């Protein structure tokens, strides 16, 4: 069902159909999209990874018109445009200078008073694009994105493979005296050699202090995670929680593992790992279409002897797609009622990332990615957890 | 660094200079905050809610997790004028500067209703009448309007973009460090460049080099592309898997971030031993283009001058921008693609400037430089490339001030008015005596202080006694006074005495005052609102 490698043209076509279906259902005339992940979803445009304000100033814009067969893409990066999109020059939505060009483009697609979904508005747009009924695009995007096509799932699986392979090289150089940024250097070089399309987030190699009290202060008293990588030296016996994500064909990977510096995991650490495995296994045991997010949370807590096995500001699991964390979000501050109504369905992808914490002995964290199928699930991430071993 | 680091492991990095002689980051952040609060007063904005990563970094100074791409608007930092506090979306204090207290943080939430509730608890925010944002979504427009009932949501850019446009000396230093990192990435890529290597491998080498230097977040992964001998030549952004051909021209265009500040450069190199036909001509066309652009990167010039310089160098309209601003990432203006003709270049702005030329049958050639806009122009990314001054131009050096007590004057100018020590020298009497028209022995000691591009030379003498002349008055022909704008006029005036100066009786108003420095030199102090009413500089 899930192809080894995606048919990218089919994937773009099916995604575009989902957007069209949502526009139809919600009686919205079209979309004007500015955030990177939504532009990628709507058009399939490849673009070089860029840091925040550069990505903003030179952003691509996607326009989707209800009833049309392909999206419009306004971009500086013409070399990343798929063949079927209608390609236009860049719009610079953050500048007043040239907003007349943007206004003309919108007017070419929509009549006065049209109801248009938008995911971000600059003040230049608020000033220069009047006469339309702007509504939030998040409803359309959220509903389309949450159920992945088989090709999308294949993209996530391939992104994950590339990510995991590059981590072998980083783990290989792990020893006392290596800096966090040295691990980033090895990982990033390798991941691009292996075919990553773009970087995602700055790789995280957070050293976990053995007690919560010795780690960074937090407003909720729970763990601080993830904190930003620095030139900190790693030392003997440090427990580090690794988290990295790269992009392949617009889809994010999500690699989470625990490593120990300069030593094999000791007995206490191995038992944390086994408990982590037991928590994820308990979730996977019941994972199939129809199960609710609340049920998944409950079995996870039960498998951890009644203690919630995830960090308060996070979740038991999250989705992944053109965003590194998207719906379904399981166990967040949306609350129990939300989780009860969130029913897992075929095509949803979930990254389970519980943590096992033991005061005085730090803890274990890893991430397992699964896609929900018609009858259960398939695993998209690998099954080695070095240096803790192997577990299916 | 967190306000009180509990995790002592974070201290274990290379602090290779022990005397704090590099960038004073707390001063850098304080300067940025002062500009923001002063801009909010000028524009009558009570609060800012910011989501753009550069804006958040600018007001908070916090290290944020590096991530590629741009997100929809969400309020990540909140600045409240009445309390003069900066609030940040962060569940922990690690990476948060000490001036942002723990109670100023609001935690990560996935549920927008919880986020809005946390924002509602920020002191002074609900009472705001005018709230500046750097973007909106229909959802947040509704949520924020509900939070600050009846408040007007306005554009934050007159405050944030205006503050960010002109760089302080500390910001320029960060840019210089970023330039050095980018140059190092260039040399790593040059060393690896040979026929058969792929763009993807070069991108990997780029990433490895900047991460090894401790700056793993690239401003852009568009860092190299080979250009073909045959067919049309296009500016490409995405790394391909195709091996680079022998003799192809390859664009190497690395950038780097340091403390959030971006710099970058580009050079074009031949892969292999022999260049394609026409390569020398193309390279010289490219060099003429960048030279022409850099020559007009002067205070007071406009984007139109760049367009004209590009055209006068014999080039057709460029398919890529000729220039854009740099700072905490890319910034306005964008000059090129029909935009930015009216943008005025001001002293202290930083631009990325590029010359892209192509010839079918040869390939393409790109040169890109990071340039600091100042009299004479300074190219941050290449110490070898000096902007040439034409013979009829002049460049400001300094204003000289003879002082009786160097230390006393330094305290006054540095402590009260925020001048920064630049350098000093003991001048040999030989030559100095003739130039200064003083009899030997002279014993001149010159101390150079800088503020906002203005250089003040303090002169004192170890071998001579200085003497006071008649007290200068404002209708006496000659230099009368130095005028400075200050963010907090009343606050500065209250400290003048303590720093050995004196406020001149009867001169103080809400907007201006005259003071004398410890030697009696007249200084005019103006409230900084003055700057905003001035016409653009010529």
Main sheet overview of chain B: 6 strands, mixed
In spatial order, strands of the major sheet of chain B run: 4-3-2-1-5-6
How many beta-strand elements of chain B?
24
Model regions low in confidence, pLDDT < 50 over at least 5 residues of chain B: 383-393
* Count of alpha and pi helical runs of chain B: 13
Helix content of chain A: 25-40%
Q: What amount of the residues of chain B lies in strands? A: 15-25%
Oligomer: heterodimer
Over the alpha carbons, how many angstroms does the gyration radius of chain B reach? 26 Å
Q: Name the overall outline of chain B.
A: globular
Structural class of chain B: alpha+beta
Widest sheet: strand ordering of chain A: 4-3-2-1-5-6
Pair of chains with the largest interface and how many residues each contributes: A-B, 95 and 92 residues
Q: In percent terms, what proportion of residues of chain A is strand?
A: 15-25%
Number of helices of chain A: 11
Mean pLDDT of chain A: 97
Rounded mean pLDDT of chain B is 91
Describe what this molecule looks like in 3D:
The complex is a heterodimer of chains A (392) and B (538). Chain A is of the alpha+beta class and 392 residues long. Chain A is built from 11 helices and 19 strands. Chain A has helices at 8-26, 36-43, 52-57, 99-109, 123-128, 138-145, 150-172, 180-193, 267-286, 293-303, 336-341, and strands spanning 30-33, 61-65, 72-74, 86-88, 115-118, 133-136, 198-199, 204-207, 239-244, 246-248, 251-252, 255-260, 317-319, 326-330, 349-352, 355-357, 363-365, 368-372, 377-379. A 6-stranded mixed beta sheet of chain A has the order 4-3-2-1-5-6. In chain A, strand 5, helix 5 and strand 6 (133-136) form a beta-alpha-beta unit. Chain A starts with 7 loop residues before the first helix and ends in a 13-residue tail after the last strand. Chain B is an alpha+beta fold and 538 residues long. Chain B contains 13 helices and 24 strands. Chain B has helices at 25-42, 53-60, 112-120, 138-147, 157-165, 169-192, 199-212, 279-295, 303-312, 406-416, 429-436, 489-495, 529-533; strands at 47-50, 77-80, 85-89, 105-106, 130-133, 152-155, 224-227, 249-252, 255-258, 261-264, 267-270, 323-327, 329-335, 350-359, 363-372, 378-379, 399-402, 420-426, 444-451, 454-461, 482-486, 502-503, 512-516, 522-527. In chain B, strands 4-3-2-1-5-6 form a 6-stranded mixed beta sheet. In chain B, strands 13-12-14-15-16 form a 5-stranded antiparallel beta sheet. A 4-stranded mixed beta sheet of chain B has the order 17-20-19-18, with helices on one face. In chain B, strand 14 (350-359) and strand 15 form a beta hairpin. The longest helix of chain B has 24 residues, at 169-192. At the A-B interface, helix 2, helix 3, strand 6, helix 8 and strand 7 of A face strand 4, helix 4, helix 7 and strand 13 of B.
């Amino acid at each position: 069902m899930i192809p080894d490698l995606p048919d990218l043209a089919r994937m773009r076509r099916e995604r575009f159909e989902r957007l069209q279906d949502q526009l139809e259902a919600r009686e919205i005339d079209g979309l004007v999209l500015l955030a990177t992940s939504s532009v990628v979803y709507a058009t399939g445009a490849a673009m070089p990874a860029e840091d925040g304000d550069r990505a903003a100033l030179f952003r691509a814009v996607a326009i989707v018109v209800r009833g049309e067969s392909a999206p419009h893409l306004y971009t500086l990066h013409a070399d990343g445009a798929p063949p079927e999109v209608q390609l236009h020059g860049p719009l610079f939505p953050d500048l007043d200078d040239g907003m007349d060009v943007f206004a003309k483009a919108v007017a070419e697609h929509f009549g006065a008073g049209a109801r248009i979904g938008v995911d971000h508005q600059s003040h230049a747009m608020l000033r220069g694009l009047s006469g339309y009924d702007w509504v939030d695009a998040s409803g359309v995007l959220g509903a389309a994105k949450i159920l992945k096509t088989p090709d999308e799932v294949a993209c996530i699986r391939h992104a994950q493979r590339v990510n995991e392979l590059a981590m072998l090289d980083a783990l290989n150089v792990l020893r006392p005296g290596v800096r966090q940024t040295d691990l980033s250097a090895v990982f990033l070089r390798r991941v691009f050699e292996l075919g990553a399309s773009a970087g995602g987030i700055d790789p995280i190699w957070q050293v976990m202090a053995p007690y919560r009290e010795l780690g960074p202060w937090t407003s909720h008293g729970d763990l601080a995670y993830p904190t930003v990588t620095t030139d900190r030296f790693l030392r003997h016996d440090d427990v580090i929680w690794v988290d990295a994500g790269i992009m392949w064909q617009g889809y994010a990977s999500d690699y989470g593992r625990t490593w120990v510096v300069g030593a094999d995991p000791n007995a206490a650490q191995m038992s944390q790992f086994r408990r982590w495995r037991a928590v994820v296994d308990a979730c996977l045991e019941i994972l199939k279409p129809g199960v609710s997010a609340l049920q998944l949370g409950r079995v996870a807590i039960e498998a951890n002897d009644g203690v919630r096995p995830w960090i308060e500001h996070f979740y038991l699991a999250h989705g992944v797609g053109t965003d590194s964390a998207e719906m379904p979000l399981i166990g967040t501050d949306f609350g129990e009622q939300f989780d009860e109504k969130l029913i897992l369905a075929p095509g949803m992808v979930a990254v389970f990332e519980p943590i096992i914490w033991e005061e005085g002995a730090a803890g274990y964290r890893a991430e397992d990615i699964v896609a929900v199928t018609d009858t259960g699930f398939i695993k998209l991430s690998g099954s080695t957890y070095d240096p803790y071993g192997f577990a299916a | 660094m967190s306000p009180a680091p509990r995790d002592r492991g974070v201290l274990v990095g290379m602090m290779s200079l022990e005397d704090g002689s590099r960038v004073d980051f707390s001063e850098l952040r304080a300067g940025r905050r002062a500009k923001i609060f002063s801009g909010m007063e000028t524009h009558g904005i009570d609060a800012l809610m910011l989501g753009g990563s550069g804006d958040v970094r600018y007001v908070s100074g916090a290290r944020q997790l590096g991530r590629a791409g741009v997100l929809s608007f969400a309020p990540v930092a909140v600045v409240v004028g009445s309390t003069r506090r900066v609030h940040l979306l962060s569940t922990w204090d690690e990476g948060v500067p000490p001036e942002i207290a723990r109670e100023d943080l609001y935690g990560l939430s996935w549920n927008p209703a919880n986020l809005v509730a946390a924002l509602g608890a920020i002191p002074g925010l609900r009472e705001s009448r005018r709230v500046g944002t750097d973007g909106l979504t229909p959802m947040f427009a509704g949520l924020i309007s509900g939070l600050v009932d009846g408040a007007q949501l306005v554009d934050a850019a007159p405050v944030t973009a205006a503050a960010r446009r002109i760089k302080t000396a500390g910001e320029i230093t960060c840019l210089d460090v970023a330039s050095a990192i980018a140059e190092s990435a260039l040399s790593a890529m040059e060393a690896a460049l040979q026929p058969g290597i792929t763009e993807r491998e070069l991108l990997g080498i780029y990433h490895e080099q900047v991460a090894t230097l401790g700056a793993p977040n690239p401003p852009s992964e568009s860092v190299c592309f080979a250009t073909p001998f045959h067919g049309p030549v296009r500016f490409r952004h995405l790394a391909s898997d195709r091996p680079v051909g022998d003799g192809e021209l390859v664009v190497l265009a690395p950038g780097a971030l340091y403390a959030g500040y971006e710099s970058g450069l580009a050079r074009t190199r031949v892969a292999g031993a022999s260049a394609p036909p026409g390569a020398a001509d193309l390279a010289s066309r490219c060099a003429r283009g960048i030279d022409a652009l850099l020559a007009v990167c002067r205070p007071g010039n406009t984007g139109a001058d760049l367009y004209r310089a590009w055209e006068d160098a014999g080039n057709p309209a460029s398919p890529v921008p000729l220039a854009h601003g740099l700072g905490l990432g890319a910034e306005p203006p964008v000059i090129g693609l029909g935009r930015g003709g009216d943008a005025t270049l001001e002293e202290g702005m930083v631009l990325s400037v590029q010359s892209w030329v192509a010839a079918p049958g040869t390939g393409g050639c790109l040169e890109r430089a990071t340039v600091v806009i100042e009299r004479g122009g300074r190219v941050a990314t290449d110490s070898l490339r000096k902007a040439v001054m034409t013979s009829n131009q002049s460049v400001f050096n300094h204003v000289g001030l003879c002082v009786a007590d160097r230390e006393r004057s330094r305290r006054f100018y540095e402590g009260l008015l925020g001048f920064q020590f630049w350098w000093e020298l003991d001048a040999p009497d030989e030559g100095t005596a003739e130039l200064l028209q003083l009899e030997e022995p002279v014993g001149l000691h010159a101390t150079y202080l800088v503020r906002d591009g203005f250089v003040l030379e303090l002169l004192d003498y170890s071998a001579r006694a200085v003497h006071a002349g008649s007290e200068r008055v404002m209708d006496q022909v000659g230099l009368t006074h130095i005028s400075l704008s200050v963010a907090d006029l009343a606050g500065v005036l209250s400290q003048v005495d303590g720093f050995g100066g004196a406020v001149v009786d009867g001169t103080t108003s809400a907007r201006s005052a005259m003071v004398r420095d410890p030697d009696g030199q007249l200084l005019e102090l103006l409230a900084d609102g003055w700057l905003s009413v001035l016409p653009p500089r010529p």
